[in-house]
Amino acid sequence: MVELESLVSAYAELYLHLMRTADRRMAEQGASLARTKLLLCLQKRGPLRATDIAEFFSQSPRTVTEAIDGLERDGLVKREPDPSDRRAKIIHITAKGADAAAKTEPLRRQIVDQTFGILDERERAELAAILAKLSGGLQSRDEAL
């Protein structure tokens, strides 16, 4: 019988290895995984407040603000006033930011394919079902609290 702790460790090791590989390979191409992840988040989710980005990535607001400052300095994002809260700003990805994210897409896709492409269709479906079940179980426990 496989111990739950060994499953958690294996999952964490895979995730960390995947992130380290992506970060190293992107750095070799002159890109940053952290910057790309933030740009992709804005591209996929739309404009967000910095506090929402910090919560999404489980990062401190200060860390996210510093990242946004750098992206804004490079013209990859822009800040606009939040119409519902005059103290807050909404972060938007710019066309230049979308182009920067798109340039890293082939490399990201290659890393994903190399990692998950070894699974056949049945294994992919099983993994997707298992991940959905685990995520749903966490979500229902969080909602109960």
Order of helices and strands: HHEHHEEHH
What is the strand tally?
3
Note poorly predicted spans.
Answer: none
The biggest sheet amounts to: 3 strands, antiparallel
Share of helical residues? over 70%
Strand content: 5-15%
Strands in their spatial order, largest beta sheet: 1-3-2
- SS-derived structural category: mainly alpha
Description of the structure:
With 145 residues, the chain is mainly α. The chain is 72% helix and 12% strand. It has helices at 4-28, 33-45, 50-57, 61-73, 95-116, 121-144, and strands spanning 48-49, 77-82, 85-93. A three-stranded antiparallel beta sheet has the order 1-3-2. A hairpin with a 2-residue loop joins strand 2 (77-82) and strand 3. Helix 1 (4-28) crosses helix 5 (95-116), helix 2 packs across helix 5 (95-116) and helix 3 (50-57) crosses helix 4.
Topology:
Elements: H1 4-28, H2 33-45, E1 48-49, H3 50-57, H4 61-73, E2 77-82, E3 85-93, H5 95-116, H6 121-144
Antiparallel strand pairs: 1-3, 2-3
Task: For the structure shown, list the relevant keywords.
mainly alpha, 145 residues, globular, three-stranded antiparallel sheet
